Amino acid sequence: MIGLVITQIAVIALFLILGWAVKFKKSYWLISGFISRPEEEKEQLIKRGYPQKTGSLLIGTAIGMLLLLPLSFTEFRFATEIQFGFMLVVLLGGFIFLSRYEVPAKRKRSYIIAIILFIVTLGPLIYLTVSSHKGYEVSLTEDAIHISGMYGDEWDYRDIQSVQLLEEMPEVTWKQNGIGLPTLAQGHFKVTGYGSSLLFIQKDHKPILYIELEDKQIFVNSKDPAETQSWYEELKREAE
């Protein structure tokens, strides 16, 4: 929590400093590619207000993120997604808007590049966000446990070495390859005392089902405690 807030403050400060330097101190060399342009193009861009508006875009993004920052200190679970989503949409959308101030010969290309960047950047993020919020489903078949969704798989009962029902989720130290949201942890994480583990965890919901395989540790739970309990009882019978 504290680390995330510090990161947000650092990003806000960076945008403010860059925006101020570009807009008010005319440090146009901070804009990517500006310094390498021909002098004639630089003059046209300055006359059209391209670098000045770039500075305003950075400052506006920083102010918006600053106004959203108090959400991090509330119980609202999607504060981080909203803050960084706002940043991406405003910046990428802003670069599309700024294309209108390009020199005429490069304006069309600038629009195309900005739009492609917008789609390529936001498209996968939207897909991952929707997929992660969809979560996962657990089903116990005749021979195996199946977990659907991202990072899901199927594991035979005969490969299960032990099953435990935990009242608390052990401390998760860091994410290796997965999705870490305020409400969900899904993927590969380092867990204190267990090492690299596969998590399918609805946060703030207990108990936690721990499944130990020969080469894998899995933590999984449901929003419904009774459902997690039933998984444990059935897997315990199958693993015996």
Automatic annotation (TrEMBL):
The chain crosses the membrane at residues 6-22, 57-76, 82-99, 111-130. Residues 137-227 form the Bacterial Pleckstrin homology domain. Signal peptide: none annotated. The keyword Transmembrane applies. Keywords: Membrane, Transmembrane, Transmembrane helix. This is Bacterial Pleckstrin homology domain-containing protein. It comes from Sporosarcina globispora (Bacillus globisporus). The lineage of its organism: Bacteria, Bacillati, Bacillota, Bacilli, Bacillales.
